[in-house]
Amino acid sequence: MKKLFLLSALTLLLVACSDTPASSDKKEVTLEAIFKDRSFAVKGIGTIRWMNDGRYYSARENVAGKVSLVKKDITTGNTVETIITSEQLGFDFEEYVFSEDEKKVMFAEQVESIYRRSTKAVFHVYDLQNKELKTLSDGKKVMYASFSPKGDKAAYVRDNNLYMVNLNNMRERRITRDGEWNKVINGNADWVYEEEFSMSKAFKWSPDGNKIAFWRFDESKVNEYNMQTWGELYPNDYKFKYPKAGEVNSVVQIKVFHLRNNRTTTMDIGTEKDIYIPRIFWTRDNNVLSIMRLNRLQNKMELLHANVNTGASNPVYTEESETYLEYDNNLTYLSDNTSFILTSEKDGYNHIYHYGTDGQLIKQITQGDWEVSGISGLDESSQKIYFTSAEKSPLERHMYAINMDGSAKTEMTSQTGTNGTNWSPDFKYYINTLTSSKHPSITTLHRGNGEQVLMMEDNAEATAKMADYYMPEKEFFSFKTSEGVELNGYMMKPEDFDPNKKYPVLMYVYGGPGSQTVQDTWHRDRDLWHMHMVAQGYIVASVDNRGTGARGRDFKHVTYKILGKYEVADQIEAGKYLASLPYTDEARMGIWGWSYGGYMSSLALFIGNDVFKTAIAVAPVTNWRFYDTIYTERYMSTPQLNGDGYDAFSPVTHVDKLKGNFLLIHGTGDDNVHFQNSVAMVDKLVEAGKPFESFYYPNKAHSLRGGNTIWHLYNKMTDYLVDNL
User: Fold this and answer.
1) Which residue has the higher pLDDT, 276 or 19?
2) Alpha carbon distance 616, 639 (integer Å)
């Protein structure tokens, strides 16, 4: 099979971004250029929504303020049909989805965000054959409106209840009646499931469209978090259910509604109520539902097969770990109805397995001392699986094809960097997006055998514009700690770098379980800000500590029950290593991070007070007892079982060690890492008599997005570092 190759445009891009001698007329990467002018914005093709004929895809286009839904030829990128315009519909739509037979389209307008993944909107259904437009729920905003497989019905959630509507006569049927704010939720996830299990829609149509399986959350005993929102005269209270580590979770049930007889069956998920159901799947049998069950400590996972008519279930697959298990394992049921594909870390690295529904292993499909990142396609007709992995390097991602019997593994991407693929439904084409630290994203269309058909976006215009600026490349490196652990890192150096001079160093850290900051990808806003700091005369560096991803289970799981210990030790060792270089100033070492990174930067400054002079912590966890059940307990067990582990490396425990400069930043409207974390930190710092600076952004969430906040934030951090590092 042919490997991916790129047109000569890639060569030109690489030349433009290559290690050419620094030119004195290069522009500086300024904050204005990054955040105001968006001078370094790159183009993408967005999410390709394949149509049933893999030759075509649909897209929402906005030309001169006129929105339309169009059909495009994937081989040319040209529009072959304008399906409908917002002018014809009578409203501007923000989202859309086709029915499976592509005879209807569902449009969403007035989309309103709730939490990270949840939204509600006004939904309309347009029949492409009879040109008829119908509005769901009498124009009330609902959540997750979804077609049935035949496209003749739709289901949605309103006010914590699940509804179904017949699209022929628009008769609405109420499936549940006990939904109530902060008490019972039907069909959509509670806060902690949405955040930590990456799910918000909590119902699924059966393949035949005659049943709907859904989650029911009873969160009546979950404690509320009270978050004030600041207005013109009096603040408002916003209360929502947020289970902190060790506290009561929602009690979850899985139910199946049968449309033909209006009957709801409750699935047997066991007598233990303090469990998680992170995923459900319909098998190839319309009467069998697959349910993934995790115990509270998340170190035992079972797949249950439940008879949806009786609710009776039995486990068909069980996996246990001395540490924890990942919840999202790419589970796919095959058309033979007797087997499934999943991924597991059971041999020390994440790999692909083929199991029978009797629980017997058929084949471990991939193996080796490297990680499968995900399955991008499974073509049963050719018995091939397409997957991405870090086999070449933890810093890169490449796509491979392999036969389902484990033979003929073939690399399909060869250019250095990080690849992401999107296959057409018929596997005749795939779209590959390649990015690296040397060039912005390059998106190409390929036939299934790897042959390139079309350059879809090369970002040549953006690259040409960037050529006017000094944009330092990431120089990747590795070093061994005093414990003999090899860590990967990168650094960026000033344009006029002189190895005989001494430069201050700013380290960027995240460091959380399974994450990576050291990867061969193009720059985000934070990287661009790092380039601005490089222009101010700093060396910027980042190192992936133990606990991070793409290096196997042992490297990642070493932090179990003692978050912060090994990660911070590695960051301190990285600081010492960088300080030992002949061109760095060991008296001017700084570190910053956001969220888990803010947790890490705080600890690094406190514990590593002989290495770091300055730290900035944005929205940090300061006490693991304040964070949610699912994430915290996955890596720490519960505080009842591991209290010492919780306290040993929470930043509030180490404030007495602060010697350097510390800036603490948080949004008061952070529903994820609560402002409470920073309040507790300030209390402890004041109690210890430690000088520090803090800053808060009223009503801003964890991302601090909205209005002028991000512009203000990066100006604030820049000024602080210039004054204190």
Assistant:
1) 276
2) 28
